[in-house]
């Protein structure tokens, strides 16, 4: 499946689940696709940006990158989160005001960068990699609860 058909598929499934359904994994996937669609549409507005969406790497440590952009002799990784509401950030996880916990997206982003650096090293490609975390939902707010928060923002 490609991005559009995946999104349509999950969007069709959404009508079968109520908001309070216990199957958070599918609901989170749907929200993730919504956020990625927002970023994808934004990137498409700028025709000169070379990017690839939803890359899955099968390596020593398999990993996935939401968006990979190659520009100005550098690579940028975009990790998109479409969380809504208020969140507290801790060193290893983030938590919503509804007490839903998710692994820290900063850790995911850092792992993606390290794994991509390893692949580029094996290919003898020496480009700097910048990583960016994008919160695509306008209702998202962050409350930082950990030391060295300036490293992330």
From TrEMBL:
UniProt domain NERD: residue ranges: 31-139
UniProt superkingdom: Bacteria
Checking SUPFAM superfamilies in the record gives:
Restriction endonuclease-like (SSF52980)
What the entry lists under InterPro entries is as follows: NERD (IPR011528), Restrct_endonuc-II-like (IPR011335)
Q: Which parts of the chain are coiled coil?
A: none
- Which residue spans traverse the membrane? none
What is the protein name given in its UniProt record?
A: NERD domain-containing protein
Q: What is the lineage of its organism?
A: Bacteria, Bacillati, Bacillota, Bacilli, Bacillales
């Amino acid at each position: 499946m490609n991005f559009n058909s995946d999104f349509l598929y999950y969007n069709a499934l959404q009508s079968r689940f109520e908001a309070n359904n216990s199957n958070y994994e599918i609901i989170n996937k749907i929200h993730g696709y919504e956020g990625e669609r927002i970023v994808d549409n934004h990137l498409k507005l700028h025709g000169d940006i070379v990017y690839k969406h939803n890359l899955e790497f099968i390596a020593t440590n398999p990993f996935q990158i939401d968006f990979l952009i190659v520009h100005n002799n550098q690579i940028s990784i975009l990790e998109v989160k479409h969380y809504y509401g208020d969140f507290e950030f801790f060193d290893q996880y983030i938590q919503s005001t509804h007490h839903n916990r998710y692994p820290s997206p900063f850790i995911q982003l850092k792992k993606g960068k390290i794994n991509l650096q390893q692949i580029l090293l094996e290919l003898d490609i020496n480009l700097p990699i910048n990583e960016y975390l994008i919160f695509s939902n306008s209702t998202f707010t962050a409350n930082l609860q950990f030391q060295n928060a300036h490293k992330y923002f």
